[in-house]
Amino acid sequence: MTGALARTVESISGALRAVFAAEQVAAEDGFLQGRDPRVTLLSLGGFALAVMLARTPAVSLGLGVVTVALALLSSVPLRELLARSAVVPAAAAVVVLPQAVLLPGDALASVLGVAVTDAGVAYVVRFTLRVWVGVALLSLLTVTTPFSALVAAMRELRVPVALVWVLAVTYRYLFLFFDELQRLVLARDSRTTDSAGARSEWRDAKRLAGTFLLRTLDRGERVGRGMRARGGARPPSPYGRPRAVDGYDYALSACAVAAVVGAGVVRWLP
Amino acid sequence: MAPVIEARGLTHEYPDGTTAIRDVDLTVDRGERVAVVGANGSGKSTLQLALGGLVEPTAGAVTYFGETSDAEAVRDRLGVLLQDPDDYLFNTTVREDIEYGPAQLGQPRETARRRVDALAAELGLEDLLDRPPFRLSGGEKQRAAVASVLAFDPEVLLLDEPFGAVDARYRERIRESVTDRDGTLLWFTPSLDAVPEVAERVVLVSRNGSIAADGPVREILTDRTLLRDHGLRPPATVRLFEGLVEREKLPLTVEAARRYLRRDE
């Protein structure tokens, strides 16, 4: 691909398609892969709730260690987990960064005449850490459990149909959306040279944006028909992949319950 | 016995004002194999969508199995294959895509699994079942899409250009898979070469989206003037033997042509 536009699209599409490749990780033998999807969903959801309740860095850090341990036990490469879960916390850090100078506290340093406070830095670190652990848990869930199994588990757990539907359709369409964009850029790329220049690229980008929206609508409509042709007008009902609940499932669930209770106790402890 | 599909006055106009199909009357009886042919842009695909209940007609209606006009009520009895396999394959693995229909239509998992395995063997998909659909070639996607329609064993198949990018070997397999079953078949295509092997009746759609002719395969496929007027040309064997053999004896398939030549020897 040539040009910044094409390279950007390629990277985004590549990252999204990596989620598909995660199905290979989901197919591997590992701790979370061997659990009943309902247990995985509830347990990792429990850990995520514990992270949300956590107010001290030690608890967040402890849950981060649990996340890393689960990833290692499930044959998920740490590098991949980090890559998948880095963007959101990085963006969150940027958003809360002003708190480092806005929160009152003892001055740690002075940047351009503005004092960076200890309370502000602690807040930014705590917030970013919590976001990272939460996103890493979500990534772990999607990497180790096929999406259809998650949808089936949600249905079995009586999650409201409307919510499951929205999640299922959003997931499907997200990939189609970027697939369409990549096709469009490929079509442009096949008739463009590197020497086209930034101005030409900007002009193309404007044209592509309009066409992209129309094509996405059209493609969405066609895929919608493809789904309806096979019963897609009915609530999503993929085949579940239940497994016999064993001691490990109970242990994982117990750990999640303990994490929620522990985080809650630490939070509200006088 | 009631027809499986009965369309009356079916018209569909797109929001931009283009009338894709116009006042179509079509009756298809149980077990019939019908090829719906027409030039590019004649409205075949829209007709397929309208007959399959996937677009709302602007006028007219379709009655299914003499029972209802609601396609969703009989969705498990209609197998609609869209033209572009990419519109069909949106799951994370090929197996999930093939299982999607049976699962949504409430078929037992074991039945679906057996059927998926049988179809995978039939259409050469065994090694592709656990791969993401976007990694497949065009022909592989097409085979996977065909398998995903056959997976829930519908009574009526409405297939839009199911050969697509498929190579010769798998064309034959797809043809066998859809013709060796007992159901009703509607095969939408602009290419007439395979029609005599899959259909016994031809419906010709004109460029304005209405039905120009409807009759037995031989009658339509050997009428050069009719076909030419509608942007089509007869199958290769018909073109080859035209003028050499009387119209009633024109071979429609390669096999028939070979038999004819041997007899001449």
Describe the protein in words.
Chain B: It is found in: Cell membrane. Chain B: It is a peripheral membrane protein. Chain B: GO terms for molecular function: ATP binding; ATP hydrolysis activity; ATPase-coupled transmembrane transporter activity. Chain B: Belongs to the ABC transporter superfamily. Chain B: This is Putative cobalt ABC transporter ATP-binding protein. Chain A: One of its GO terms (biological process) is cobalt ion transport. The complex is a heterodimer of chains A (270) and B (265). By secondary structure, chain A is mostly helical. Chain A has a domain at 1-30 and 147-240. Chain A contains eleven helices and two strands. Chain A has helices at 3-27, 37-53, 57-73, 78-85, 87-96, 99-102, 118-144, 147-156, 161-189, 197-228, 247-268, and strands at 107-111, 114-117. In chain A, strands 1-2 form a two-stranded antiparallel ribbon. The radius of gyration of chain A is 22 Å and the shape is flat. The N and C termini of chain A lie far apart (59 Å). The mean pLDDT of chain A is 84. The radius of gyration of chain B is 19 Å and the shape is globular. In chain B, the strands form two sheets. Chain B has a six-stranded mixed β-sheet, sandwiched between helices. In chain B, strands 2-1-4 form a three-stranded antiparallel β-sheet, with helices on one face. The model of chain B has no long low-confidence stretch (mean pLDDT 92). Chain B is 34% helix and 22% strand. Chain B folds into two domains: 5-223, 3-Layer(aba) Sandwich (Rossmann fold); 235-265, no CATH class. The relative contact order of chain B is 0.15. Chain B has helices spanning 44-51, 94-104, 109-122, 138-150, 168-179, 195-198, 217-221, 224-229, 236-241, 254-264, and strands at 5-13, 19-28, 33-38, 59-64, 78-81, 156-160, 184-189, 201-205, 211-216. In chain B, a hairpin with a 5-residue loop joins strand 1 and strand 2 (19-28). Chain B is of the alpha/beta class and 265 residues long. At the A-B interface, helix 1, helix 9 and helix 10 of A face strand 5 and helix 2 of B.
